[in-house]
Amino acid sequence: MIDLNGKYRLEQAYELLLQISQGNFHYRIPRSDSDDEMEALIVSLNMMADEIQDSFFHQGYVTKDDSLLVTNQVIIILNQRNEIISINKAGAKYLKYNKRNLKNRSIQKLLSQDSQKTWQQTIKKISNNNPKEVTIKLNFLSKTNLSVRTICTVVSLKPMIKDSNHLMVTFPIFKTKRAHFHQKLRARIHKKSNARETNSKAKRRKPKLTHSDIRILQKVGEYIRNNLDKSLPSLSSLALDHGTNEFKLKHGFKELYGMTVLQYLKKERLNRAHVLVMNTDSSVKEISQVLGFKQPNHFSREFKKFFGYTVRDCRSLKHS
Amino acid sequence: MEESMENDYANLWIKDGILYFKYKDHVHIDLKKSIEIVSARLALQKGLEYPILSDITGVRELSKDARSYLASEGSVLSKAVAFVTNRPVSGRISKMFVENYRPSVPVKICNSTEEAITFLKTFVDD
User: Fold this and answer.
1) Start-to-end Cα distance in chain B
2) CATH class, B4-121 region
3) What is the ipTM of this complex?
4) pLDDT at residue A63, rounded to an integer
5) Nearest-by-CA chain A residue for B95
C-alpha cells in the first residue's frame, strides 16, 4: 500500500533540497504532528536550512561580505475580506506563484496553520484601528508547499487613502551573494566600460577562508567557550595549539566571528555572567572569579559597558 | 528546601544529586522559552552545580536561537548533561544540537533514564 501522506512529505523534502541547492535558504517544510522517521528527517532538514541560512546571515562573515542581501520586497494589497487584489510580480515569483493565480485568493490560504491564527488576531487589532501598523512573524506557504518564514509589516491604508479599507502586507526578499554575484557579472559583461572599476574593487578584497581554516577557527571558538574561567593563552600559542598561525587566527577569527578573539571571549564571559546574575544569588566576586575576570570591579565595569545597565540594576529587577 | 517545580514546559526535580528535567509533550522551544527554562532550572539549583538528566521526549522543535542559547548560557552550573529520548523527532533534534553546538560540559544522548543515570552518577558529589 502506498502511504500517500508519506509520499507527500518525501516530495516536500526533495523540494526543500532542490531549493537549497539553488541557494534559496529561506524555505522550510511545514511540520506535522507525526513523530516518525520521516518527521525526524524533516526536522533535520529544517534545522540544516537554519544553520546554512544563519551561517550566511549572522556570522559576521557574511554580513560583512553581504552574502545575503535584501534585494526586493513582497508587496500584497488586500481588500476588506482579506483577499489579494494585487501582488507585485517579484512577490508572486518568490512564493512560486503566477501573479494571476493569486488574485482574489484569501491571504489565509497562503499561510501555515499557526500563522492563520496570528493573522486573525492581528486583523482584529487592526480593524479596531489600534495600532494601524504591526510587524508580525508569518509563515507563508509557497505553491510547492514549503513554508517561508517572514517578518511581515501589515499596514492599514485607511489613514493614507480616504475611505480605503485596504491592507498592505509587505516583507523583504533575500538573495544570496552568489545569485547577486551572477547578476552583477551579467551587468559587467553587458557594460564593459565599467569593467575596470569593478576589477579594482575585487582586487582590494581580502582572501577567502578555506573550509579547513573555518574548521580550525570554529575549534578555537569552542576552546574559548569551554575555558571561560581560565586566562586565555597568547594568540601565538593559541594558534599553534590549533594548528594555525597567529596572523591567520587574528584576521580569520575576525572575519568569521565578526569580532576579535578577545572581544569574543569577553562577550561569552559576560553572557554567562548575565545568566548567573539574573538567576542565582552568587556574589559579584564569585561570578567574576568563575568567569575568569581578575577583579570584581573590572567585571562590573565591563558588564555595564556591554549591557548598558549595572549588575545591581539587574539584581534589583530580579528581586522586584 | 524546594526540590521540585513545574512550569508550562517542564517538570523539574532533584533526586540523589541529579537534577531531572522532563519536558512536557509537544513543546516547541524558542529563545524566550529557553531563557525561561534555564532560569527555572537555576532557581531550583540555588547556586549549586548538578549533573542534569534532560528528558526531551516531548520536544517537537528547538529553534536556532534556542539551540545557540542552550549550548552556551544554558550550560551554566551544569556538570554534565544526559539527554533522554527514544522518539525519532527529539532524537534527531538532540543529535544535531550536540554535534553542531558542542555544549561546554560532557553530554550523552541516552535511550533510557537508566542509561542516563549510569552516565551522570560519575558526576555526582559524594
Assistant:
1) 20
2) alpha beta
3) 0.77
4) 34
5) A44
